[in-house]
Amino acid sequence: MTNVDAGAGLDPVHPVAPPTTGPAGLTRAEVAERVARGEVNDVPVRSSRSLGEIVRANVFTRFNAIIGVLWVVTLFVAPIQDSLFGFVILANTGIGIVQEWRAKKTLDSLAVIGEARPTVRRDGSAVQVPTSGIVLGDLVEIGPGDKIVVDGVCAEADGLEVDESLLTGEADPVVKHPGEPVMSGSFVVAGGGAFQATKVGREAYAAQLAEEASRFTLVHSELRSGISTILKYVTWMMVPAALGLVVTQLVVKSNDFKGSVARTIGGIIPMVPEGLVLLTSVAFAIGVIRLGRKQCLVQELPAIEGLARVDTVCLDKTGTLTEGGMDVTGLKPLDGADEGRVREVLAALGASDPRPNASLQAIIDAYPDGHGGDRRPVSTLPFSSARKYSGAAFEEGDGKVAGWLLGAPDVLLAPDDPALAETGRLNEQGLRVLLLARAARDLDGPDPARGARPVALVVLEQRLRPDAAETLRYFADQDVRAKVISGDNAVSVGAVAHKLGLSGKAVDARRLPADPADLAKAVDRATVFGRVTPQQKREMVGALQSEGRTVAMTGDGVNDVLALKDADIGVSMGSGSEATRAVAQIVLLNNSFATLPSVVAEGRRVIGNITRVATLFLVKTVYSVLLALLVVCWQVEYPFLPRHLTLLSTLTIGVPAFFLALAPNKERARPHFVRRVMRYSIPGGLLAGVATFVTYLLARHHYSGAGALSAETSAATLTLFLISMWVLAIVARPYTWWRVALVAAMGVAFLFVLTVPWLQDFFALRLVGNVMPWTAVGVAVVAAAALELVWRWVGRRFPV
């Protein structure tokens, strides 16, 4: 049903409940009036930047500016063949824009699927609207796990507890009463209620924080920052080398002006690793598109990279290893309690909670409303992850008030209570057990559980996710440690973990040491933890990080929010609470834990392959700078025209790098990206540059006459191509059939250029005689052998 209350340009609202008995909320006319005044929660689009921003980011770069100026100059002073590098840059930039635009559309469509739809009260009915559909003065209903999306004032409260730690740093939940303010960015941990929106859109407290935290971005990653560092070093090397080359070619050598300009530009262009940033962006963008097809919303792109670096995954049991639903499989009255009366109390408890959790929902399904007799709730105590129980007080038929508690037996009972023995036996079977107890104290008091009398045990069976065991095996095979951190009974959690193939004794988190150093050691040693409070989850993530671990945290409940926020990578289920989806970097919209291996694999593909291709690009930069310096020192003509290096770059870097960057790669991501790349690029580039210049000097002594420079260039080009091909052959390891075919195809393409007359003329490449071509081959062979030895020595001498 479409409701005009949504206002012009806003999504329709959807009724979710019959008319309420509280305040009716805004009317249709009031909503339309506020929309007309612009008093709408027009929050910025969360997941993407605009097409204009994408174009500017890909076009207006420092290196594009350098290459663009040189291209314009080349178009005026040299043949079109020497301007090919400019057309390559145009094609690369176009590819980058198209891929990022595709990624933007994927993210936008997924963000709509995963968008929270708050419940507001209008004309006395509860309706769901998109976050952008909230208007000033709306009455917004909230319950456990709901994120408060705009600022407001509490209008109704039923045991309402709000966690404001993400805003204030205060760990303890704040109890809210009518008239007290609530801030956007906080979330409900217990109870329910409603608040009236007083600030919407960009005026809301957390709007700017949310915009910055959720925007589509390619920054703040080791890979991107490493490439930026490398480009900074490249710029420092380029400037003096290029200036020296300009002076040498235009002043020292008495060549014709146009030829000198062309060879100067030919020396500067290859110093720029222009395709490296492009390929990184394309690899990230394609990763987003691939994961989007699997219903995985990547809210921050570096999360793909981050999860690939993870060595520890902390898993919440409920909703991650087990499915959300549960079934009541048994009811065990204690101390002669009447089973019929127990069923009535359970039915009444279920009916008293407007937002039941999974456990209470199973009880409601087993004992529906109507079985609760004539019990009317006088007061309620909402479930809290910190308390581990909930409760309600009912007015019985005789007019007396009785308080009841439902929660964890080991929390509600004394350690020596005999009922715990039966609970332990059931937990060992992987069953979840709740205790129904008669309260001896007022539920509004400081400790309502003290003195509670056990009445019955409710046995619940959890449904294991069918793909959980296979996913855990994948992490084990990839040397990623899995740790189950749950608020449930430790024995029960341990039994579930054991069924899924995780070994190790379950640890009761209440017995963990408080000292951070001791906690870190205890958490690092064990695998399964039960009775973990939300604050402890956060502390355990921090403890693992203090041990040098890169931690991912998965969860779907409000009790996971703090840990998700602090983890290196937070992963939320799409069906999880609004708060968990808001703070997580990755949202599994299909609620499938089995999607995580795909995210890990995608991250490893990006990091491993970009490391490979970065080596190719930077070898070219190093030998280009070295050749420029050698030309300046020897005061000779630069050996190459732009067309020669465009051909070499295309065959030994551009085309192969594109395929290598998008190929499968299961190698575990390792740190120190800059060091890993430079330790191979520098020696590789130095050997290539020296060998090429040696061939060039030998050719200068061998050839003479009018066509000598062209013959010298051809011999030097042959040497440089063969060495670059060997670098490509090393980088392409380990070999597969398609990698071998790729390297071979590049070699055949170059051979084709050398043998087809019109291509020889087009690229100004013609090998003259037999002596120098074979000398060029011999120098390349010696340099390739030296490169192989140096490559292996560097790997042993400078491990990372």
From TrEMBL:
Write out the GO cellular component annotations: plasma membrane
Any transmembrane segments, and where? Answer: 59-78, 84-101, 233-252, 264-289, 613-632, 644-665, 677-699, 705-728, 740-759, 771-791
- Top-rank taxon of the source lineage equals Bacteria
Principal location listed in the UniProt entry: membrane
Region feature (Disordered): 1-24
Q: What Pfam families is this protein classified in?
A: E1-E2_ATPase, Hydrolase
Q: What are the record keywords, sorted? A: Hydrolase, Membrane, Translocase, Transmembrane, Transmembrane helix
Q: What is the lineage of its organism?
A: Bacteria, Bacillati, Actinomycetota, Actinomycetes, Kitasatosporales
Entries under InterPro entries matching the protein: ATPase_P-typ_cyto_dom_N, ATPase_P-typ_P_site, ATPase_P-typ_TM_dom_sf, ATPase_P-typ_transduc_dom_A_sf, ATPase_P-type_domA, HAD-like_sf, HAD_sf, P_typ_ATPase
Q: Which PANTHER family does this UniProt record tie to the protein?
A: CALCIUM-TRANSPORTING ATPASE (PTHR42861)
List where this protein forms a coiled coil: none
- UniProt name for this protein: HAD family hydrolase
